């Protein structure tokens, strides 16, 4: 969560599936911190398309923005690969073109 919360311009997140459990809570906390900073930050989240387990992007967006209110300087985009299959097994967090976290545990 700290890396994502450090964004001043943009935060990109890519993973095979949507975050859940502790990862979801950390991401929600990071987005709340970005919101409270007042900075115009773009957050983009991209997931793959697993057979039988498509990401419900509307639900994920709702979970991540719960309690933020309508007016926020954070621009949050949530998307998933939808044409054919995508085994996007990336685990990437990129912040402001200066910080990068790759690999590790599925979220």
- Classify the helix fraction into a percent range: 25-40%
* Discrete helix count: 3
Unreliable stretches, pLDDT < 50, 5 or more residues? none
Shape: globular
Derived from helix and strand composition plus strand pairing, the structural class reads alpha/beta
Task: Output the strand order for the largest sheet.
Answer: 3-2-1-4-5
- Taking the alpha carbons of the first and last residues, their distance comes to 12 Å
SSE order: HEHEHEEE
Can you describe this structure?
By secondary structure, the chain is an alpha/beta fold. The chain is 28% helix and 27% strand.
Short description:
With 107 residues, the protein is α/β, with parallel strands linked by helices. The protein has three helices and five strands, in the order αβαβαβββ. Helix content is 28%, strand content 27%.
């Amino acid at each position: 969560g700290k890396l994502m919360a450090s964004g001043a311009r943009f935060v990109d997140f890519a993973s095979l599936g949507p975050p859940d459990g502790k990862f979801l809570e950390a991401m929600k906390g990071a987005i709340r911190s970005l919101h409270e900073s007042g900075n115009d930050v773009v957050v983009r989240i991209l997931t793959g398309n697993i057979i039988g387990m498509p990401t419900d992007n509307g639900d994920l967006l709702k979970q991540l923005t719960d309690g933020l209110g309508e007016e926020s300087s954070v621009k949050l985009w949530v998307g998933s690969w939808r044409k054919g299959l995508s085994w996007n097994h990336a685990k990437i967090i990129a912040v402001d073109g200066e910080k990068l976290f790759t690999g590790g545990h599925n979220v």
